[in-house]
Specification:
The protein has 165 residues and is of the alpha/beta class. It contains four helices and twelve strands; from the N terminus they run αααβββββββββαβββ. It has helices at 2-6, 10-24, 28-31, 119-126; strands at residues 35-37, 58-65, 68-73, 78-80, 86-88, 93-94, 98-102, 105-107, 112-113, 131-137, 141-142, 157-161. A seven-stranded mixed beta sheet has the order 6-3-2-1-7-10-12, with helices on both faces. The chain has a three-stranded mixed beta sheet with strand order 9-8-11, with no helix packed on it. The radius of gyration is 15 Å and the shape is globular.
């Protein structure tokens, strides 16, 4: 799956990210909340930064602090962390109402495979009122993900974007 995503043409990534924008901005959960957690995409992930077109929302980005993530507002002030992921430099911490969660894979039961460090699972288990939404390309949808730990947190919703090869 990761190799498929890595080999996507940038125009496909951009088209799919624009589809994400068109879908999510019509959803009640998005319309009715103001503080949205997004992330800086890596390796041809869907790009939730397209949502920043919406000037009526506040967007927060995750930053790894120790063994957990916290969310901060950031406009264009980013730096690369030890995992080669861009994160906010200097900003004020806040708690999002909705978080778009990066996924390597997602199943019909809303179980996800992330990147293996459990950052989002830890955060979501502490912030149970936050609405979590997995965003994936259609090829990332799998039949069944085995839950390995009691720390694994199911997501609340998902958005699946079909792509044209």
């Amino acid at each position: 799956m990761l190799s498929i995503r890595d080999n996507l043409n940038i125009s496909i990534v951009n088209d799919c990210s624009n589809k994400l924008y068109e879908i999510i901005t019509k959803e009640d959960y998005y319309i009715n909340h103001q503080i949205i957690g997004i992330y800086y995409p890596i390796r041809n992930e869907l790009n939730p930064r397209v949502l920043e077109r919406d000037q009526n929302k506040t967007f927060l980005y995750p930053k790894i602090i120790g063994d957990e993530i916290k969310f901060f507002e950031a406009k264009d002030d980013f730096e690369e962390n030890k995992y080669k992921i861009m994160e906010p430099k200097n900003s004020v911490e806040s708690i999002p109402e909705i978080i778009l969660v990066p996924c390597l894979a997602l199943d019909d039961e809303l179980n996800r495979i992330g990147y293996g460090k459990g950052f989002y699972d830890k955060y979501l288990s502490k912030h149970k009122k936050v609405i979590s939404i997995g965003i994936i390309y259609s090829f990332q949808l799998v039949t069944n993900i085995k839950v390995f730990s009691s720390f694994d947190v199911k997501l609340d919703k998902r958005i699946i974007i079909d792509y044209d090869k």
